[in-house]
Amino acid sequence: MSAGPPISESDETALATVRRIAGLRAAVADWRRAGLSVGLVPTMGALHAGHLALIRRSRADCGRTVASLFVNPTQFNDPKDLRAYPRDEASDAALFLEAGTDLLFAPAAAEVYPAGFATQVRVAGLGDGLCGATRPGHMEGVATVVAKLLNQVRPDFAYFGEKDFQQLQIIRRMAADLDLAVTIAGVPTVREPDGLALSSRNLLLTADERRIAPTLHRALAAAAAELVGGGVAAGRPAGPVIEAARMAILAAGFRAIDYLELRAEADLALLERAERPARLFVAAWLGNVRLIDNQPVAPQAA
Ligand code: PAF
Predict the structure, then answer these.
(1) Distances in whole angstroms, Cα of residue 31 to Cα of each of 1, 5, 28, 36, 56
(2) Which of 54, 19, 53 is nearest to 40 (CA)?
(3) How many Å separate Cα 100 from the centre of its chain?
C-alpha cells in the first residue's frame, strides 16, 4: 500500500493536525485516492489507555486513522461539568502520535456549530433511559456530534468504548437508521489493575475518592456473578441482587446513585431477570464526580 501523500499542516515530529472540515476532507480524499481505508476514533481528549486501545484497533483494521478531539458542549447538561472537563491538547497530541494516529481533527466550536446551527439527532427508545434520563439532552448532543463527525470523515470504521455502552448502542442504531456507510466497532472497557474503568473523569477524583472508586466495578461484578449463578437460563430475579449492590456502593462512600439497572444488551430494555444477554449499568456520584460503568451478565459471544 502507498504511504499516502503528506498533510500540509504538519511537520515530521508533530502530529498532523487540522482544525477545519475542508482540511480534514482534503486529507481523507488523498488517502482514498491512494486506496487506503480509514478509521475514525472520536474523543473529547484527556486521553487514557482506553482511548489508545481504540487507536490500536483502528490501526489494526484500517490503512489510516483519524482521531478527533472536540469537547462537545452540546452533550454537557451542566455548564460546571463542561468547565471542569480536563483539557490538554499538547499532551493528548503526543499520546495520539505515539499510538500511531495519522491525523488529528481538533476543530473550534464555531467550526462544528456555526451560527444558525439548528439540527439535533435523537435516537428514540435507546436514548430515553440511563444517562438519557439522568442527563437531559446528553444523548442528543452525542448523537448529533457523532453524526457530524461520521459525515465529515466518512470513515470505513468508527471505534467507541464499551464503557459508554448506551452511547455505543445509540450510535449503532443511528448509523443504521441514517444509512451511514460505516461499521461501528465496540472495544472492551480498559480497567486499572484495581478494576476501576478508565475514564477522563478519574483525573478529577481526590486521593480518597480514587481509593473508593473501584467499589463500583466490584459491586457490579459481584452482582453479575450472582445473577448468572446457576446459569443465565435460571434467570434469577435482579431486584434483591441490585439492592445489595446499591448498599455496597453507598456504604463505600459514594454519595448518590443515578441508576443501577439490569438491561438487555440489544435494545437496552429494562429487565427483571437476566434471561437474555444483559448488562448491569450504573451511574453514581463520588463527591462531585459522576462515574459510570457496566458489566455483562451473560457470557459474551466470542
Ligand atoms: O465518548 C466520548 O468521548 C464522546 O461522547 C464522543 C463520542 C467523543 C462524542 O463527543
Answers:
(1) 11, 7, 5, 5, 19
(2) 54
(3) 20
CA distance 238 to 150: 38
Where does the pLDDT of residue 154 fall: very low under 50, low under 70, confident under 90, or very high at 90 and above?
Answer: very high
By DSSP bridging, strand 289-296 and strand 17-18 are: unpaired
- Residue with the three cell numbers 475514525: 40
CA 278 – CA 296 distance, rounded (Å): 6
Predicted confidence band at 233 (pLDDT cuts at 50, 70, 90)? low
Angle at 181 between CA 151 and CA 300, to 5 degrees: 110
For the Cβ of 297 lying below 6 angstroms from any atom of ligand 1, the answer is no
Query: pTM (2 decimals)?
Result: 0.93
**Rg of the chain in Å (alpha carbons):** 20
Q: Is 8 helix (H, G, I), strand (E, B) or coil?
A: coil
Listed residue (278, 282, 229) closest to 257, CA to CA:
282
Residue 8 has pLDDT above 80, yes or no: no
Q: Is 146 in the pocket of ligand 1 (CB under 6 A)?
A: yes
**Helix, strand, or coil here: 42?**
strand
Say how many Å lie between the CA of residue 269 and the centre of ligand 1.
Answer: 23
Retrieve residue 75's grid coordinates.
Answer: 452533550
Ligand 1 probe mutation, 43, 139, 150, most atoms within 8 A of CB: 43
Q: Which residues pair with 191 in a beta bridge?
A: 197
In degrees and rounded to multiples of 5, residue 283 shows phi and psi of: -135, 125
Vertex 93, ends 91 and 94: CA angle to 5°?
A: 65
